[in-house]
Amino acid sequence: MLALPATDLAQLRTRVRALAENRPAVYQMLDGTGKILYVGKAKRLRTRLLCYFRAEYPADKAARILYAAQDIRWTYVPSEFAALLTELRQIREYRPHFNFKLNRTRRSVLIKISGGPAPRVHAGSAVAAGDERVYGPFRSMERTLEAVRTLNDLLGLRDCAANMPIVFSGQADLFGADRRAACPRYDFGSCGAPCAGFIAEWAYRQRVETAAAFLEGRTIKPIDRVVAEMGRAAEAAQFELAGRWRERFEQLEWLLAATSRARSAIDLLTFVYRDPGDRGDDRAYVIRQGTVRASYPWPATPIEEEAFRAVIRAELDRPAPPTGALPLESIDEILLMQSWFRAHPEALRRTTPLADWGGVTIRSPAP
Question: What is the pTM of this model?
């Protein structure tokens, strides 16, 4: 038997038809206690909400959300950009059940370093529990996986399951007489085997920090080793072996360039963005390294302009965010900014460098 809806859908649809306008908005589906079940955004609110009532239960996820809801609440925003940003922040704040169950997290190609006694360096499409440092985003999952595998092999880092039991050397009372690594990578010389006590904890963590330094552009030690091994193989006329080392060199070279491009792309997302409102209510967004630091109505008078200059000067006086790993709390917002300006190149013509506002003169953005 099909479940009954939590409320009178006909009455709810009548209210939407009567009250909802076709304007950008963020809406919330709520249960009988007022708890937010789902947060969504719409460029045309009335059209979007009425789609829920035409969805078929239980096949369509929109119908499943609607059947669980008791009420719909919405807030109008100036533009589609504002709707996207507000939706993201409300999902982050309220963590609605259906947003996470339906996998609304923005996905990309990332390199992650986990926590725990023996951290792993691995690639994935989303940040997971236990990930402590994240780099990217990158364009190719296949090339990223290959490069991470090479980096792990060179540094002897584990790539086994996250829940693999870890014991380090110096914990002799935990070992039996016969110690064996859980996989053949130790025998191949590509893993320090923290699963079997063949490496000290400090030594393993030092290798992890070398990987982090490489991903942050602070060292090229892994490439130095590859070049040295490639040269030795060539001198010994082991050309097949030299060719394999050459492949590793190309993978690490690609990764070094890709991490540099990723950092530069985020640094370039630093400006004031004038976002045109659908009803003339333009807003000014202060964006620094892909995160929105402040938002105000676009200054229309000399007094408003001077007040906004003061906001920019205060932002410029703050220390620049550190380069390196992405801030975990802002990854989704950074990815959203990248996606927006990539999909709307005309929006970049409405941006102004922060320094132009913080200084004496302003370079007016194109209308």
Answer: 0.89
